[in-house]
Amino acid sequence: MTHKQNPLFFHNSLEHLPNKHICLLQVGWEKCKPRYQYTNYRNFYLVHFIRSGKGTLSIDNQTFSLNVNDVFLIRPNQLAVYTADAESPWEYYYFAFSGQMAASLVERTYFQNGQLVHTMKDDTLYQCILDAALGMENCKIPDIYGLEHLFRFLSLLIPEPEAVATLSDLVEDSPKKYLYAVQEYVQFNYYKPIQISDICDTLNISRSYLFRIFKKYTGSSAEEYLLSFRLQQAKKLLSTTELPASTIAQLIGYVNSTSFYRMFKRMEGMSPKEWRKLHHDLTSQSTNGSIQEFSQNE
Question: What distance in Å separates the CA atoms of residue 24 and residue 5, rounded to the nearest whole number?
Answer without folding.
Answer: 22
